[in-house]
Design goal:
eight-stranded mixed sheet, 2,3-Dihydroxybiphenyl 1,2-Dioxygenase, domain 1, single chain, mainly beta, eleven-stranded mixed sheet
Length: 323
């Protein structure tokens, strides 16, 4: 059941992972389609082609997942939630683009930041999709299509999936603080969700079908943590060209390419050098707040509209919680 939230966040900004070798992580992320924004002795910040100053953070340490950041809609919202129980006072965000943040801890021990005021970076690409000639729509006249070989154009950090003992309790906690609303639930039986797809509540403004997905950790031996982190790329050619590039670089595939049922996006999942799952996606559903929640049985919840079947390894916790 939805509650009156403290604030309604706008989006996610970045995840914070850990890895024992920043050189190897940077090499993987370059192949994945990111470029370095900043690097210190113990922290790597990577960006995409869009205006976000960074979209991925890696801290030096044992493999794992520290947490992630939401974006507040205003400085007033940031101050409001920072004054709520369990949140830290507002402090400067010491990273590319600056800004401010408050931090709390969620039910499985992840650090959840709310940020505001980051200065945008100069975009590296227009991020426009390529013109297509399809069906009755002909957008490219008198010009051949040429797709350069190389990594995907990573546009933005889009969503993440967390494995937890009680997906419904996770939703209630996040809904009460950040105003997330349900797009779809996958149910073991009516009223017994094993996965809940949630989006930001932007009122009449459309947003991604899911910004955060809570799923049961019973598929990972009761180990809570990160299943995957996901970045939007510019178009479907970026998904396929990126897949070819990662394959040529001998990276470790997880699942794809296919089109999801829930969210509808074209997806491609890859493992970083420590098995932490990173996803490319494009062409996802956009819902405003008026779209009612949907529900599916567990036999349909993991289905793809096309593409390979989901491997059994995919449902694991790919990165444990680092407190």
């Amino acid at each position: 059941m939805s509650q009156t939230p403290i604030i309604k966040v706008r989006d996610v900004a970045f995840p914070r992972l850990q890895a024992p070798d920043l050189d190897r992580m940077e090499s993987f992320l370059i192949d994945f389609g990111m470029v370095r924004a900043q690097r210190t002795e113990d922290t790597l910040y990577m960006r995409g082609v869009g205006p976000a100053p960074f979209v991925h953070v890696t801290h030096l340490g044992e493999p794992g997942f520290r947490g992630f950041a939401f974006v507040a809609g205003s400085r007033d919202d940031l101050e409001k939630i920072a004054g709520s129980e369990g949140f830290s006072p507002v402090e400067p965000l010491e990273s590319p683009g600056g800004g401010f943040r408050t931090v709390t801890t969620d039910p499985i021990g992840l650090k959840v930041e709310v940020v505001f005021g980051q200065e945008p970076a100069q975009p590296l690409d227009t991020a426009n999709p390529r013109a297509l000639n399809m069906g009755t729509r002909f957008e490219r006249i008198g010009a051949p299509q040429r797709i350069p070989r190389g990594p995907s154009r990573v546009k933005r950090f889009g969503h993440l999936q967390l494995n937890a003992p009680d997906p419904q309790a996770m939703f209630s906690w996040y809904n009460a603080r950040f105003g997330l609303i349900v797009s779809d639930a996958v149910e073991l039986a009516p009223g017994m969700p094993v996965a809940i797809f949630n989006r930001c509540d932007r009122g009449a403004e459309p947003t991604d079908h899911h910004t955060i997905l809570f799923s049961s950790d019973m598929t990972s031996g009761g180990v809570p943590g990160l299943n995957h982190v996901s970045w939007e790329v510019c178009d479907i050619d970026d998904v396929f060209a990126g897949h070819e590039h990662l394959s040529a670089k001998k990276r470790s595939p997880e699942w794809g390419i296919g089109r999801h049922l829930l969210g509808s996006q074209v997806f491609d999942y890859w493992n970083d050098p420590w098995g932490q799952i990173h996803e490319h996606w494009t062409d996802g559903d956009q819902f405003d707040a008026s779209v009612a929640p949907g529900s599916l049985g567990i036999d349909q919840g993991a289905a793809s509209q096309w593409g390979p079947d989901m491997p059994s390894s995919y449902v694991r916790t790919s990165a444990r919680v680092i407190s």
